[in-house]
């Protein structure tokens, strides 16, 4: 049971009292609603002529001395958050999108009937108030009411004014209530809006063109992930919700969009935890004649400019430690980081037995079928990634774990790929893109063989994409950034659900049972997810699985999300 109206979160007797209180309060407010309509008062009028926001009043008159009459009048509108009754005098805090201003209503000024209507108002009601702008004896900026209009009657009580809304499930299911009750929630989503606007402005300012590509497609390409499947009735075909943005954008580079990007939702039918949501916001950008070094420059610029736009500084705090997102970020190869953290010298060309010996020494399990390059990547995940708090580019990955990246110009066992890591989390992933259509076909055919063998995340050959490459994709650098995770860093949010307005949730009691649940597979509750949030500030790396791509690593998957329950 949530703590709405100050009700205890404990079960049993307290829960029952809380439910009775909620029901009784709602009936009481419905009675008020009926009384207004019987008197001919419309409790939900069409509009109100607001001319000033609360924040504007603060900007103009915030420094006035006590007992000041400005001579100015204002019409404000917002939600009543606090009401203090003193006989024939009522004070209330009116909150709108820009801030809070105090309202003062006096019986002597309004008359008995109008003042009685003000007395009958409840916390949560939306009202419009017109009157003189003054300061009180204590110096509080106030609108002295000459007219008060009920704009929308709230039938449910707000959470306790001193405690706020703390129940995790209620906060996520009823985000509208969370936004009303918890100012920090609104701050996080204001940060999100500024971050995404800054990302867009940074790219447009560098000559990139923003585009929109299909959400539904007949192929679920660009990442190794399980897609959502739907059916197109008019065409009578099954279609997939996109799991990445990569392949359509690279088709556009072939078509002449030499700098192109998209910010969009992608969908993966996989796990839920503090760092994964089945739908999330992804940025992918592609630059003709660029390579992964150019993408490093672009990533650190995007992240630092986003922090500056949202917070006014490139400094963020991670687990109590200040971290600067300003360029330049540290750049280190995977091999160098492994040696730095474990003392082991590793390379994809090393004998497999020697690579296994490194795993044995650090206590890392491995699959007997893994190559030296795959083992090297797993060792990095184990000993390297989680140690990186300050922004770091880890580059030059083994070829085995990066099937869509271009082979390294100086070492055929490596690819030109990097991950940007901050606070032990993969924030971004980028390549010098593979543009050889013959090589790409071979890799697609390997994927198709894996799918035929039962790999649910493998895909068939995308013949149209191969055809596009055969018209010549120029040398291209590509990047992907999981914007939800960028917002988490800049806003200081511990879990991805805290930066998504309406995260995916288990249905409430009485709602339709999802197919997975009906089949006996449990979805994690918000409370279960919250239990892991404290450990999410600087999490360790998840084990890699499959062969990650630009879009997949941009979401920070380290291969792919690990579900809390088996699929």
Describe this structure as you would to a colleague:
With 567 residues, the chain is α+β, with helices and mostly antiparallel strands. It contains 18 helices and 18 strands. An 8-stranded mixed beta sheet has the order 6-10-11-18-17-16-15-14, with helices on both faces. It has a 5-stranded mixed beta barrel with strand order 1-2-3-5-4. 40% of the residues are buried.
Unreliable stretches, pLDDT < 50, 5 or more residues?
Answer: 1-11, 516-522, 532-567
Report the oligomer: single chain
Distance between the termini: 29 Å
Radius of gyration: 28 Å
Protein structure class: alpha+beta
Q: Percentage of helical residues?
A: 25-40%
Side-by-side strand order of the widest sheet: 6-10-11-18-17-16-15-14
Tally the helices: 18
Number of strands: 18
- Mean pLDDT across residues: 87
Task: State which percent range the strand residues make up.
Answer: 15-25%
Shape, please? elongated
Largest sheet entry = 8 strands, mixed
């Amino acid at each position: 049971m949530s703590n709405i109206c100050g009700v205890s979160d404990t079960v049993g007797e307290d829960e029952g009292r809380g439910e009775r209180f909620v029901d009784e309060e709602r009936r009481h407010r419905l009675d008020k609603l009926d009384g207004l309509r019987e008197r001919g008062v419309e409790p939900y009028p069409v509009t109100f002529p607001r001319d000033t926001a609360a924040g504007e009043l603060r900007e103009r008159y915030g420094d006035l001395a006590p007992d000041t009459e400005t001579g100015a009048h204002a019409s404000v509108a917002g939600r009543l958050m606090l009401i203090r009754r003193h006989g024939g005098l009522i004070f209330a805090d009116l909150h709108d999108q820009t801030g809070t201003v105090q309202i003062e209503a006096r019986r002597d000024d309004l008359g008995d009937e109008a003042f009685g209507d003000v007395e009958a108002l409840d916390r949560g009601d939306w009202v419009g108030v017109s009157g003189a702008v003054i300061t009180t004896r204590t110096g509080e900026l106030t609108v002295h009411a000459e007219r008060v209009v009920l704009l929308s009657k709230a039938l449910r009580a707000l959470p306790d004014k001193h405690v706020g809304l703390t129940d995790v499930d209620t906060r996520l299911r009823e985000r509208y209530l969370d936004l009303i009750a918890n100012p920090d929630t609104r701050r996080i989503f204001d940060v999100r809006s500024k971050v995404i606007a800054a990302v867009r402005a940074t790219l447009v300012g560098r000559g990139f063109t923003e585009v929109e590509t299909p959400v539904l497609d007949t192929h679920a390409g660009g990442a190794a992930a399980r897609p959502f499947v739907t059916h197109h009735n008019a065409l009578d075909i099954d279609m997939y919700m996109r799991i990445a943005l990569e392949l359509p954008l690279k088709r556009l580079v072939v078509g002449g969009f030499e700098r192109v990007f998209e910010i969009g939702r992608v969908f993966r039918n996989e796990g839920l935890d503090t760092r994964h949501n089945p739908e999330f916001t992804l940025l992918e950008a592609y630059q003709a004649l660029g390579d992964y070094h150019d993408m490093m420059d672009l990533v650190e610029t995007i992240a630092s400019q986003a922090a500056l736009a949202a917070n006014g500084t490139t400094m963020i705090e991670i687990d109590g430690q200040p971290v600067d997102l300003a360029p330049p970020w540290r750049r280190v190869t995977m091999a160098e980081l492994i040696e730095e953290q474990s003392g082991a010298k590793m390379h994809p060309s090393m004998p497999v037995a020697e690579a296994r010996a490194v795993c044995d020494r650090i206590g890392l399990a491995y699959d007997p079928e893994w190559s030296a390059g795959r083992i090297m990547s797993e060792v990095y995940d184990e000993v390297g990634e989680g140690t990186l708090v300050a922004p770091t580019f880890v580059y030059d990955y083994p070829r085995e774990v990066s099937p869509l990246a271009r082979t390294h110009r100086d070492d055929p066992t490596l690819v030109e790929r990097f991950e940007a890591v901050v606070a032990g989390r993969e924030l971004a992933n980028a390549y010098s893109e593979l543009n050889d259509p013959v090589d790409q076909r071979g890799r697609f055919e390997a994927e198709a063989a894996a799918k035929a063998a039962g790999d649910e995340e493998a895909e068939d050959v995308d013949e149209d994409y191969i055809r596009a490459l055969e018209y010549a994709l120029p040398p291209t650098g590509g990047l992907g950034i999981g914007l939800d995770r960028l917002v988490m860093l800049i806003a200081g949010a511990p879990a991805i659900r805290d930066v998504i307005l309406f995260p995916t949730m288990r249905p409430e009691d009485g709602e339709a049972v999802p197919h997975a649940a009906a089949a006996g597979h449990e979805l994690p509750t918000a409370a279960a997810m919250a239990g892991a949030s404290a450990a999410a500030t600087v999490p360790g790396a998840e084990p890699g699985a499959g062969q990650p791509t630009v879009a997949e690593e941009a979401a920070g998957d380290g291969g792919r999300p690990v579900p809390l329950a088996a699929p």
